[in-house]
């Protein structure tokens, strides 16, 4: 990866162009063989501190903190052509800690991340329906929490494949409650090249109150 390579050209602040950042501390501008660019701070020849890294040819750019050449600390990654944006904490080049991701379809996830994936406590808001998933996430999927409807109805229970599964409870705006359970049935896909997991949900009511 270009992020780990020596630049094709490097210009230190107030200095002349060279092809190495060796032992340099201060600000500079680097261009890498694949066209990526970095403008920002260096410590002992590596990206360290605040800077801006632009990826070629996508035009995606990261603006924020670096440590040992990697995205680390607080930063914003903006995907070109309105393909999304992440702002929050990073660790060793990956989303890690608290952060907010706005997707290309304007869905938003706000919460905890681990090694680049949604993990911990977080809330996902669906732009087209205004529904929300709020709860505990593991490996990019919600596993336990709430499915919140715009009309005030809330489902509480476990999830699997980002859909409710198992024993849960609906609470309605009028304070009525219904207990029961969801079952999931995986529907075979007619197109063998389509890896999308089609799941059919069925709710069974066991108690009203």
Task: Return the CATH class of the largest domain.
Answer: Mainly Beta
What structural class do the secondary elements suggest?
Answer: mainly beta
Shape: elongated
Instruction: Give the overall pLDDT as a whole number.
Output: 94
* C-alpha end-to-end distance: 59 Å
User: Unreliable stretches, pLDDT < 50, 5 or more residues?
Assistant: none
InterPro entries: MORN (IPR003409)
Keywords: Repeat
Pfam families: MORN
Region (Disordered): 1-29
Task: Write a concise synopsis of the structure shown.
InterPro entries: MORN. This protein has no helices and 17 strands.
Report on the architecture of this protein:
The protein has 209 residues and is mainly beta. The protein has 2 domains: 1-69, no CATH class; 82-209, Histone H3 K4-specific methyltransferase SET7/9 N-terminal domain, CATH 2.20.110.10. It is 0% helix and 61% strand. The protein has no helices and 17 strands. The protein has strands at residues 9-12, 26-31, 37-43, 46-54, 61-67, 70-79, 84-91, 94-103, 108-114, 117-125, 132-138, 141-148, 154-160, 163-164, 166-171, 177-186, 199-208. The chain has a 17-stranded antiparallel β-sheet that branches. The chain starts with 8 loop residues before the first strand and ends with a strand. The mean pLDDT is 94.
